[in-house]
Amino acid sequence: xxxxxxxxxxxxxxxxxxxxxxxxxxxxxxxxxxxxxxxxxxxxxxxxxxxxxxxxxxxxxxxxxxxxxxxxxxxxxxxxxxxxxxxxxxxxxxxxxxxxxxxxxxxxxxxxxxxxxxxxxxxxxxxxxxxxxxxxxxxxxxxxxxxxxxxxxxxxxxxxxxxxxxxxxxxxxxxxxxxxxxxxxxxxxxxxxxxxxxxxxxxxxxxxxxxxxxxxxxxxxxxxxxxxxxxxxxxxxxxxxxxxxxxxxxxxxxxxxxxxxxxxxxxxxxxxxxxxxxxxxxxxxxxxxxxxxxxxxxxxxxxxxxxxxxxxx
Length: 313
What we know:
Layout: H1 7-14, H2 22-31, H3 33-38, H4 43-49, H5 52-59, H6 62-80, H7 84-88, E1 95-99, H8 115-130, E2 134-139, E3 147-150, E4 156-159, E5 171-172, E6 182-186, E7 192-202, E8 205-211, H9 219-222, H10 233-258, E9 263-269, H11 275-287, H12 292-301, E10 303-306
Parallel strand pairs: 1-2, 1-9, 2-8, 9-10
Antiparallel strand pairs: 3-4, 5-7, 6-7, 7-8
């Protein structure tokens, strides 16, 4: 627990704008410069490891409190003021859903492997700075992507460090009664795949990440979100079903709980979330009563697809 005077510091940690905002990083560094380097610029670990005596010192340091207060006020302005999108589009409020299997926001949230994830992360950061009303949708991998090292003989070695969501700058999506929200996807043989929804706040942009490693699932289903790009074809298929179908359902739950407008445009970063189109067609036919032809047309009109390897193969 932070001293009351330092509670705004906790809010700065919780919003990932710090990952591209040097002034906030400087505030974290001032907490304990040596520890900041030791935890590799991870503010969650920083606040978890800093001695209570040091926190008490900071809570009575007027100069440090002024820096925290100023940065916190700047964050609040950033989150609430009109930005380019609101000024250019007259305050249009339609929401855009952005699906990707990986998001490279910061190494503190190790849910990416390379270019596709860095691009997705930069999309969210730019959308936040511009005020574009995007909601990101991805998966939360309990082992992330592998960490590489070299053996004494020069061979590449991989290890998959365990990722504990409770030590990440994310929060569980909870219903009004405090219960954790669950989404479910039907599987062959009468089985179902359940997932919790974690939310990372990337500036003004929420990023929803589905996590199958929960007690609602059996052992096999719990491993669906074990590793980014891990496993065989069936494992990857289940990941893509959860991302696409479960992602649409997570968006519906997020809109219900928070009051955020339902998305009108669905952007899929590569084909990993292709099942989201099928889920939207199902909604339009089963729930809205449209014919299949009308549902196809409506879903197609609200779909954007990005490919990064436009080659014959």
